[in-house]
């Protein structure tokens, strides 16, 4: 037995390294699947929109992430940001982000996607939404992306092209331009209305079923690796005499 292990030491090292790795990746995918299942449950529980017409800012701060709400407000001129490199149905375009006031506070609104048609300089114009409108969508908590290439430099020229919209970052710029505290949400519109373009936001890019499939692939690879190792080391023909004593 010891001589066989000595003969196949390289295979043993390879297996000892990759077997725990494949198993851990399998359990990681199972954990991701559980997270996606819980996310879908949360989305279903928060599907019915809360009607917030009277002092909505007093309520927004206490709501759960991904809660659907309906409120009335007016877009504040001239604040419009175009989020770059958004792809819908194979076409590249922008997400249009506006700013509204809710009570004494401010809230970013993602109106949805529109095709850019390659126009970047100057940026395309979209119709301004005038007057008070009814908005329905999800309150999405957005954190800064640590993998973002470059840093957006905000200016006072609108519309403005940006890579990302992060309330905590944008609040510093807006503090010099408009009164009010920027709430830590982006209201992502998901219902047809005067302000809605093409909704395309999804809570997750991958369903729980795909994570489960990946998990079983990793477990299958771990099983295959184990069986091959056992056969090769313990059952395959070998001339033991050629193994150094």
Main sheet specs: 8 strands, mixed
Span of the ends, CA to CA: 12 Å
Strand percentage: 25-35%
Shape designation: elongated
Provide structural commentary.
With 245 residues, the chain is α/β, with parallel strands linked by helices. The chain has two domains: 74 residues; 123 residues, no CATH class. 34% of the residues lie in helices and 27% in strands. It has five helices and eight strands; from the N terminus they run H-H-E-H-E-E-E-E-E-E-H-E-H. It has an eight-stranded mixed beta sheet. Helix 2 packs antiparallel against helix 5. The longest helix is centred in the N-terminal third of the chain and has 37 residues. The model has no long low-confidence stretch (mean pLDDT 82).
What is the element layout, followed by pairings?
Blueprint: H1 2-7, H2 9-45, E1 50-52, H3 57-60, E2 68-73, E3 75-88, E4 91-102, E5 105-115, E6 133-140, E7 160-162, H4 167-174, E8 182-189, H5 208-235
Parallel strand pairs: 1-2, 3-7, 5-8
Antiparallel strand pairs: 2-6, 3-4, 4-5, 6-8
Helix pairs in contact: 2-5
Describe this protein with a few key phrases.
245 residues; alpha/beta; eight-stranded mixed sheet; 8 strands; elongated
């Amino acid at each position: 037995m010891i001589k066989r292990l000595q003969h196949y030491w390289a295979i043993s090292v390879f297996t000892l390294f990759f077997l725990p790795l494949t198993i851990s990746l399998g359990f990681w995918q199972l954990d991701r699947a559980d997270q996606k299942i819980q996310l879908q449950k949360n989305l279903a529980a928060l599907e019915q929109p809360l009607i917030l017409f009277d002092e909505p800012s007093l309520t927004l701060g206490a709501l759960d992430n991904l809660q659907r709400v309906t409120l009335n407000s007016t877009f504040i001129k001239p604040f419009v940001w175009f989020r770059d490199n958004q792809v819908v149905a194979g076409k590249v375009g922008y997400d249009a982000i506006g700013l509204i006031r809710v009570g004494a506070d401010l809230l970013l609104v993602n109106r949805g996607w529109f095709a850019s048609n390659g126009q970047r300089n100057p940026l395309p114009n979209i119709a301004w939404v005038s007057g008070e409108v009814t908005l329905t969508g999800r309150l999405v908590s957005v954190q800064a992306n640590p993998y973002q290439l470059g840093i957006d430099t905000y200016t006072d020229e609108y519309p403005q092209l940006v890579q990302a919209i992060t309330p905590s970052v944008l609040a510093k710029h807006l503090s010099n331009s408009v009164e009010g505290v920027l709430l830590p949400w982006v209201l992502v519109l998901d219902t047809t209305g005067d302000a809605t373009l093409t909704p395309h936001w999804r809570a997750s890019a991958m369903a729980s079923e795909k994570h489960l499939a990946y998990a079983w692939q990793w477990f299958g690879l771990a099983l295959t690796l184990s069986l091959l190792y056992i056969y090769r080391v313990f059952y395959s023909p070998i001339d033991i005499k050629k193994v150094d004593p």
